[in-house]
Amino acid sequence: MNSRSKKPGNSRQVDGHVARKRFGQNFLTDESVIRGIVTAFGPVPGQNVVEIGPGLGALTRELLAALGRLQVVEVDRDLAAALPLRLLNEGELVVHQADALKFDFRTLARGPHDLRIIGNLPYNISTPILFHLLAQADAIADMTFMLQKEVVERMTAAPGCGDYGRLSVMLQVRCEVEWLLDVPPEAFSPPPKVDSAVVRLRPHATPRYNCVDEKRLQHLLTSAFNMRRKTLRNALKGQGSPEQIEAAGIDLGLRPEEVDVATWVRLSNLLGPEGHHE
Ligand code: SAM
What we know:
The chain is of the alpha/beta class. It folds into 2 domains: 8-203, 3-Layer(aba) Sandwich (Rossmann fold); 214-270, Orthogonal Bundle (Helicase, Ruva Protein, domain 3). The protein contains 10 helices and 11 strands. The protein has helices spanning 31-41, 58-67, 77-86, 126-134, 149-156, 166-174, 214-225, 232-235, 242-247, 261-270; strands at residues 13-14, 17-18, 27-28, 48-52, 69-74, 92-97, 115-120, 140-148, 175-183, 188-189, 196-203. The protein has a 7-stranded mixed β-sheet, sandwiched between helices. β4 (48-52), α2 (58-67) and β5 form a beta-alpha-beta unit. The radius of gyration is 21 Å and the shape is elongated. The chain starts with 12 loop residues before the first strand and ends in an 8-residue tail after the last helix. The site of S-adenosylmethionine has 24 residues, from β3, α2 and β5.
């Protein structure tokens, strides 16, 4: 190997490309894991699939083979430029060289709930991307992401479990959230320092919970889960009157992590924007 082609530290050359740490580039190299993810995703010809961060094309190649046509959004100019050459004659590939955090995915949709999104996302931007996409949920059928396992644990957590918190509630209010599979660090090059998991989010086509104001819900969850060991009575002190909250059938003796999604929504609807009841 040319000594200048391999950078020291965490950078590593993969398939002729020096992995860029700032773009969270850990490339999937394990063929059985790649096939497992694509099988769990379940591409069907005719579906409008968009891959975020195709990188060197590990998932892209399998997806193209199954679909015949695929759109991708890749921020790295070098990778975006090289991808069509890597996948020459493998199908119709449409490359959008752009930052997915700023990309308007609605422009790719042919109608409501049309887009199927898939991505092995950089871990440092996974939460902002989730919320950026949720703001466009009317265009999205489902989203399948490889994320840090710890984040997937929080996303899928049920009430009563230690991982249940703000992220669980904010996502489960909007989507069906389903854990698909685990992926070990050895499946990537360079290997990340953490375990990974693949999760599917399916935005509810009609709202399952009647949440009047999601910002208010977010604010309420942030303040309550900052005191997750306290009971609601203490964690919500100064927010609404205890009598009114109890009259609505909400048990103030519960700790935040014991409160289910439907009850958080009721509580947030009951309390005003500043935590005063309406
Ligand atoms: N999908 C490939 C795989 O599984 O091997 C690459 C996965 S790698 C973890 C993340 C990919 O997302 C890289 O190709 C990186 O350049 C790209 N990426 C990072 N930030 C991005 C952003 N804001 N918008 C679009 N792509 C991004």
